Amino acid sequence: MAPAAQALPMETGSVTEPAPAPVDPAPADPAPAGPAAEVQPSAEATPTETAPAEVTPEETVPAEVAPAAPENISLPAIEGDPVVGGTLTSTGGQWNGAGWIQYSWIIDGVPVQTAGHGVGEADALAIVPSMAGKSILLTVVASTEAQAPGTEVSAAAVTVRPAAFTGVVWSNAVTGRPAVGQELSVGTPQWDTSASQGALAYQWFRGSLAIGSATTSRYTVTASDVGQKLWAKVTLSAPGFTSVELSSVQVTGVSATFVTAPVPTVSGTARVGQVQTANAGTWAPGGAALSYQWYRGTAAIAGAVGRTYTTSAADYGKALKVRVRATKAGFVTVDRFSAARTIAAGTIVATKPLSVVGTHRYGNTVKVSQGWPSGTTFRYQWYRNGVAIRGGTGYALYFNPSYIGSRVNVKVTVSKPGYATRSVTTGAVTVGRALITLKTAPRITGATSLGSVLTANPGTYSPAPSAYAYQWYRNGAAISGARYRTYRLTAADNGRSITVRVSASLIYSDTRVTMSPALKLPVWAVTVLRGDGTYRVGTQIKPGLYKATGTGSGCYWERLNGFGSSLDYVNANYYGSARTYVQILPGDVGFRSSGCGAWTTVPSTGAKATSITKDGTYRVGIDILPGDYYGYGSGSSCYMAMLSGFGGTLDEIYDNYLGSAWVIVTIPSWVKGFEVQGCGTLVRG
């Protein structure tokens, strides 16, 4: 370290002891000491003095002088190679008057490391990958001691270079046969520990174009690669390192060859008119497109390019074979020929099965349907019950009434030059009566109330029937005695489905039986109690929902758990309008009614009214529709209640109201009942 500036005595012939420097008042801004600065003697001292004046014991101790700021003699320098993985150091430069140096390392303007040391002690910065390509600046502040103000200088900035991979070893060979469908691969590069986090990236190329998705060390050759130069590029990279690109040798893609190319065989009878079928066998690898060409001798048969071929008269006595050609993208096309087979004379084979078309019924005409090779001639003979029909030698036959019940068939004799004559006979079919065709189905008309008369509309037919018969059904069961066109509804039909079966008949025709669509009857109200009284539940009245049919507002009923006079026997009760309902539960023992009129069962349908004009209890969604209702009546005794049931208990009152008849009420769809008393007319808004 450079020595601090100090005062030096002037040289003389003999020096006894350095005299202390005169004490001068400290200047406001002391000038920094230069490298050769000296403390000058006081004004009283002359150059000719030979010795400094002695200090007598009576002289006072000089005042302490403030230390001068350190003076930089040489700027600090950054030592070391600025490369990732290396270390930079600095001793802070040379100073006069310094005892402490504060180091600050700055990366692209951002301080990353600060440290303080005594003068002469070096500070170091390790270069990490994130610093690659960035500028490193070092500033130092020299002071007499730590925490004291000092002098700041900077070293020349350096730029960090990426590190280089070393020890990279790789074979650029491409392993594998460059044929379509085959796999190529390249090896994995090796390198030393210069980059422990090195990563490899692969890319295969077809010529100069990168192959999409071919980014691993392996690649399967495709048809597009035939005739193309294939090679791989391997890129070695790591944070803070210069990437290394390695290229493999180039190989040329070639077409593949089929591993298995079997000789085809031919199946089928080797006769004229028979179907010959080529069996190509199993080619490997799969996916080959197979095409066919049939040969007569050595000549290709025009148009015979399917897997099957039907021999003709021209093939008689000739050698027949088939060629199978296999093609596949990226593969060499291969032809294989079957062994030749000699075609013998054949039998006439129908190209379409012999049959009789048409309806075997009175009034219809049936015809022969057939197909034979061209050049074939035909002869027909029709038979009735096994006996040849006189004059029945045409391809068609008409059925008059005499044929009804007879079994009819036809024999066709075919011949053709060079073929054996053959006869084919159809199976015998019984001739039936004519059919009556339904045009419009029967239907039921009429009112659906108890006692109403229903009428069967028989529908329409072709031809028109000469007579009709009827049978009425209730829920699918025949109704005894209901065999006329009309039917009167009885109590037994309540809520049931009614249908009618219509039987249409005509001479020489089968009777046509058709069932009408079902007519679903509503559930009619049936009177179960005819007036006031007390009734036993289970025998005189069953549990269920019932409706009162009386008038007025003096209806009273009770659901009972016993028949004594005590109120304890009353499960629930009601008093009000006779337009009401009661739900009798299975646990009730008795039911008492007074002033309510007769009680009936409850139909499943209702008026679905949108206005309420009378006091009473209504089923929501059936008797009245839900919604907002407006009342414009007078008086203040209007009572309304929303009900969850009709058992007469307080628990079934979801909400209620008593007040002015000038009111708006919302009847929700999920409540079962709505009770109203003294509110006048309510109209749904």
Question: Explain this structure to me?
Answer:
- Residues 19-33 have a biased composition (Pro residues).
- Residues 1-62 are annotated as: Disordered.
- Residues 43-62 have a biased composition (Low complexity).
- With 685 residues, the chain is mainly beta.
- It has six domains: 71-160, Immunoglobulins (Immunoglobulin-like, Sandwich), CATH 2.60.40.10; 174-188 and 197-253, Immunoglobulin-like (Sandwich), CATH 2.60.40; 265-346, Immunoglobulin-like, CATH 2.60.40; 348-431, Immunoglobulin-like (Sandwich), CATH 2.60.40; 434-520, Immunoglobulin-like; 528-684, no CATH class.
- Helix content is 0%, strand content 41%.
- The protein contains no helices and 61 strands.
- Strands 4, 5, 7, 8 and 9 form a five-stranded antiparallel sheet that branches.
- The radius of gyration is 60 Å and the shape is flat.
- The two termini are 106 Å apart.
Which key phrases capture this entry?
mainly beta; Immunoglobulin-like; 5-stranded antiparallel beta sheet; flat; disordered N terminus
